[in-house]
Amino acid sequence: MAEDTPYLGRMAGLALLIPMALLLVVFFVWPLAQTIWQSIHDGTYTLRAYRDLFSSSLFLKVLQNTFAISATATLVSLLAGYPVALHLSRLDPARRVPYLVMVMLPFWTSVLVKSFALTVLLGYDGVINNLLSWIWAAPVHIPMVFNRVGAILGMINYLLPFMILSILSSLLAQDTNLGRAAEVMGASRFTVFRRITLPLSMPGVLAGVLINFTLSIGMYITPALLGGRQDMMVANLIDFYTRQTLDWPLASAISVVLLAISGVLVAMLGRVRGGGGMKEMAK
Fold it and tell me: Got the DSSP string for 195-238?
C-alpha cells in the first residue's frame, strides 16, 4: 500500500492540473491555432498575407515605430526605476512594505482608466499646463498627449513597477557583507556601487528590460488613446486591418509575427532569470 502512495499522489496532482489545462486549450491554444491557420489559409493554402506583410511599407514603418517607442519607454523606466529599487533595497523590511504598496498602486487601476486620467493631467489645457501657466503668469500649452510623448509617458506609468520589482529582487539577493568589506578596504560608496552593486544587479536589470520591452511591443490601449496618428504600433495596426479593411489573413499574419517576437523575448527572459529572486523581497 505504501508503494502506491507516490503514484496516487502524482495522479492527484495531474487531476488538479486538468481544469487549468482545459482553460489553456480553450482560451489560448485554440485561438492561437485559429490565428495561425487564418494567416496561411484564405480559401486555399497561401502565403499571400506574409508576402504582402513584408513588402508593405506601412508595416515596416509601424514595426519601426513600435521598437522605437518600446525601447524609449523601457530605457526611461530603467533610469527612473533603478534609483527607486536601490532606495527600497536599503530600507528595513518593515519600512519597505508601505513603499512597495505605493509601487504596486498602478496595478489597482485599469490601463483604460489611467489613460483617460493622463489626458486630463497632460492635456493641452490639462492640470500640468494650467499649473505652469499659473507659475509663469502666461499661457503655457506644452503638447504632451496625442503624440509620441503621450504614448511613452502612458506606457511608463504601466511598466515602471515591473522594472522596479525586477531590479529590487537582484539587489536584495546581494550579500551586504561584500559592500562592507569593500568599504573597510578603503573603497568609496560610489566605487562600491560601480564595482559591486551594479554588476551584481545586472540580472534584474536585464530581466526588467526584457519584461518591459515584451509588454510594451504589444500595447494597444495606451498608444491608441495617448499617441498620435504617426505613432501607430503593431497592435493598433492589427486592429486597423481587422475592423477597417477587414483583411483578416493579413491581421493574423501580423499577430503571428508579433507572437514570434514576443516568444523570442520571453525565451531570453527565461535564460536571464534562471533563478527566482522575488522571495528575497519578503525577507
Answer: IIIHHHTHHHHHHHHHHHHHHHHT--HHHHHHS-GGG--HHHHH
* CA-to-CA dists, residue 251 to 64, 65, 71, 255, angstroms: 17, 18, 24, 6
CB neighbours (10 Å) of residue 157? 20
List beta partners, residue 45. Answer: 41
- List all residues 6 or more positions away from 129 whose beta carbon is below 8 Å from its beta carbon: 123, 140, 141, 142, 144
Domains observed in the chain:
1-40 (no CATH), 57-282 (1.10.3720.10)
* CA distance linking residue 31 with residue 69, whole number of Å: 28
pLDDT in tens, 18-41: 888 888 888 888 888 888 888 887
Report how far residue 277's alpha carbon sits from residue 169's, in angstroms, rounded to the nearest whole number: 5
- The pTM (predicted TM-score) of the whole model is 0.83
**Rounded mean pLDDT, 203-222:** 91
